[in-house]
């Protein structure tokens, strides 16, 4: 069995516990996720599963990705044009040996195109997706990929009420921020003539020794938009019928952000 699912953050609300206490919770729309690739130790060197989330149209999906998902790909425009020209019998007559050699090359290309047209599927198996998101996840302890089939679907029933999970997401981007907001600096004194130094960072290094700014010195800079893991969050409720997870506490990212919900492992 898989140890993680993909989902989207719906938002935060509150529920009441058994003794009447208010519990802040985050609602997550998780799954269903479809297995798009199974990696095995003999072939890939490790065992893992690639899953797809949120089906989409083929409009904005590349041909390599469609081939990876098992779709039968149409011929390219140039290949289609060459094949149509051959089928309509629009070929020049060979007058010299060089031209006959070129004609042999063309016939080989046409035979190759006919062969390609008859079988345009990159890999055997069902046509899957396409999906907006593809991610690789691991397996639960002791599980193997032998029981995981290509095209299998997993939903919120993978988790149970009261279970602890780790949720990985991307935090909100704050743009370029100063030291007070980014690192919690207290700022300069507000008296003694310093009317414009309230939120200034102050000195960033000493003089002759070392004579430079040390690496890692906290300064103003780009804040947020980082991959963050919120660990050991408790599942209050799992609803497979509506593909919803209710998790205690807050999770990284804005509403609608992509999340990975992983089973918590004690180490």
TrEMBL record:
GO biological process: translation
Region span, Disordered: 82-109, 177-213
Signal peptide: none
GO cellular-component term (any): cytosolic large ribosomal subunit
A molecular-function term among this protein's GO annotations: structural constituent of ribosome
InterPro entries: Ribosomal_uL3, Ribosomal_uL3_bac/org-type, Ribosomal_uL3_CS, Transl_B-barrel_sf
Keywords: Ribonucleoprotein, Ribosomal protein, RNA-binding, rRNA-binding
Domain of life, source organism: Bacteria
Family classification: Belongs to the universal ribosomal protein uL3 family.
PANTHER family, sorted: 50S RIBOSOMAL PROTEIN L3 (PTHR11229), LARGE RIBOSOMAL SUBUNIT PROTEIN UL3C (PTHR11229:SF16)
Assembly with partners or alone: Part of the 50S ribosomal subunit. Forms a cluster with proteins L14 and L19.
Annotated protein name in UniProt: Large ribosomal subunit protein uL3
Native species: Tengunoibacter tsumagoiensis
UniProt lineage: Bacteria, Bacillati, Chloroflexota, Ktedonobacteria, Ktedonobacterales
Gene name in the database record: rplC
